[in-house]
């Protein structure tokens, strides 16, 4: 009976995470699947292990974003364009990355607040799910934005 009672709260937390507002409004089905798969995979664990799993996935998404930013900067360095435009684009990339970080943190804090009176652990899991989704989308956006730039 104890195993059943432990699964019900996990199911409730998992259902709440899958109902995140951001998950319902994706334009790209692959992005939705990536975020949902992270939440579903982590949902197979106990609540504390679920939080740890989401935390690890969040860190992975952060590293993926950092790599995408570095690759975008490298791609800009190889862009077949005047150096002044390359420098300007790199500066705009840095500005954009800083603004995204602020937006992401504010958006995920807002998303977490939509958990209402849920316990702190559930609110943190909402925040982590949001981070995973936004980091993933930003990484994909950066990669696709610079992919077609002609190289020197």
UniProtKB/TrEMBL annotation:
Residues 46-142 form the Lysozyme inhibitor LprI-like N-terminal domain. Keywords: Signal. It holds the Pfam family LprI. Coiled coil: none annotated. Residues 1-29 form the signal peptide. It comes from the Bacteria. The keyword Signal applies. InterPro entries: LprI-like_N. This is Lysozyme inhibitor LprI-like N-terminal domain-containing protein. It comes from Massilia psychrophila.
């Amino acid at each position: 009976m104890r195993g059943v009672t432990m699964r019900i709260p996990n199911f409730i937390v998992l259902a709440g995470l899958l109902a995140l507002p951001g998950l319902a409004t994706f334009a790209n089905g692959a992005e939705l699947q990536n975020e949902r798969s992270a939440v579903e995979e982590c949902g197979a664990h106990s609540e504390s292990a679920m939080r740890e799993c989401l935390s690890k996935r969040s860190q992975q998404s952060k590293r993926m974003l950092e790599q995408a930013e570095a690759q975008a900067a490298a791609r800009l360095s190889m862009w077949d364009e005047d150096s002044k435009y390359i420098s300007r684009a790199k500066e705009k990339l840095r500005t954009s990355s800083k603004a995204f970080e602020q937006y992401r943190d504010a958006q995920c804090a807002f998303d977490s607040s939509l958990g209402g009176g849920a316990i702190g652990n559930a609110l943190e899991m909402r925040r982590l799910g949001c981070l995973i989704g936004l980091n993933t989308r930003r990484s994909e956006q950066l990669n696709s934005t610079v992919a077609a730039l002609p190289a020197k």
